[in-house]
Amino acid sequence: MDNTNVQIEAIIRHWDGELVVTHADQLSGAWFVIAVHSTRLGPGAGGTRMRAYPSLAAAIQDACQLARSMTYKFAAADFPLGGAKAVIALPAVWEQRGRPELLQRFGTLVRRLRGLYVTGPDVGTSATDMDVIGTTGAPYVFGRTAAAGGSGSSAPPTAMGVFYGIEALVAHLFGAPELHGRRVLVQGAGGVGQDLIPRLLAAGAEVLVSEIDPVVVQRLQTTGIAIIHPDQVSGTPCDIFAPCALGGVLNRETIAQLRCRGIAGAANNQLATAEDAERLRARGIVYVPDFVVNSGGAITVVGVEALGWSPAQAEAKVRAIGDTVRQVLQRAEADGVTTDAAARQLAEQRLAQAPTPGAHPMVIASR
Ligand code: PHE
Predict the structure, then answer these.
(1) What is the per-residue pLDDT across 317-326, written as a single tens digit (0 to 9) for each?
(2) Phi, psi (deg, nearest 5) at residue 132
(3) DSSP 8-class letter at 266
(4) What's the structural domain count of the chain?
(5) Is 85 in the active site?
(6) For range 143-148, the mean pLDDT
(7) Is pLDDT at 1 greater than 70 in this prediction?
(8) Helix/strand/coil for 238
């Protein structure tokens, strides 16, 4: 058997999830991968990430790891959904022109799973893309635009939750939640980052931003915000580091360089390995686990579109993320464990009380 098969076998066998669906989209050369990590708390839910990957194995690995984080995210938020994720792994050469049809074919696959997996936006997809996926994937597609009957982009409520998390972190570190005069370094001005920045500025924080897209950098420059070169992120002194780009940014190399007091951001899977939580603790840097602080978007769009939450109810749930952050930081301190371990423990307690996988009768459908 060749190396690729061995890799894919190992990824799926060593993963603790329930199911991986792979589909070769012949017309585009893309792969659709749907990883359902856990249905203990409800149907598997998670965004659709769309980008190129070096291999199918890399795409499957990403989907599986991101799906696991969704399980912990919903459990930590005490929200009735399981964890899943989809990846549309684009071929190296690809025509944007075919995007709507590609998304529609993906939507057909989602609908054929009959609610075992429900989707929403993630890196590389938007509310507008959800509208297109929804034409074939409804009612299992969340986060469509208001014009198409959805609750709109999940980025603003995600940013709001991260903001409350940063306030709770600042209160933990400095004794008061005020951001005035605090220096916050935001890595990535994508969907969530560009929503978080004005919130931080409005609260009086000094904001530094790092972004790899030259078009976005140019736009940021006109606002007068300090731009940090992507290579300088870990070494830049700041109070709070907010990773809002891709995962794996907290690793052996970067942690050794960090000059921040605390970390709270929207990116999924910020820790490169499980040991990195201990490395951060050893350096005295307080890390707010990503899955605790970045659930605002997912719970808002599904809460509003499937559970009938009012905007005020959704806001209260997002605000409660700050309380969970406080609880996790206190528990880690009291038990002498990493914040990551404390947060996982909280999520695992909820998962342990739930029925066995697949036993859950609930189907969630968007309005
Ligand atoms: N990108 C979101 C996240 O990681 C996923 C999501 C958004 C899921 C909206 C459902 C609805 O949390």
Answers:
(1) 999 999 999 9
(2) -70, -45
(3) S
(4) 2
(5) yes
(6) 97
(7) no
(8) coil
Q: Are 144 and 232 contained in the same domain?
A: no
Q: Higher confidence at residue 222 or residue 70?
A: 70
What's the pLDDT score for residue 356?
A: 75
In a domain, 358, yes or no: no
Q: Enumerate residues lining ligand 1, CB below 6 A.
A: 45-47, 73, 120-122, 142-143, 154, 268, 294, 297-298, 301-302
Bridge partners (DSSP) of residue 227 are 209
Q: What is the DSSP letter of 44?
A: E
Entry pTM: 0.96
Instruction: Examine the domain organization and report whether 33 and 118 are in the same domain.
Output: yes
**Pocket probe mutation, ligand 1, options 71, 122, 321, max atoms within 8 Å of Cβ:** 122
- Active-site option among 85, 144, 172, 281: 85
Q: Is-contact 324 330, C-beta < 8 A?
A: no
Query: If you search the block for the tokens 């209160």, which residue do you land on?
Result: 171
DSSP 168-204: HHHHHHHSS---TT-EEEEE--STTHHHHHHHHHHTT
Of 133, 148, 163, at which residue does a domain stop? 148
Residue 325 falls inside a structural domain: yes
pLDDT at residue 224 greater than cutoff 90? no
Cα-to-centroid distance, 122 and ligand 1 (Å): 6
Residues 307, 264 within the same domain: yes
pLDDT at 3 over 90: no
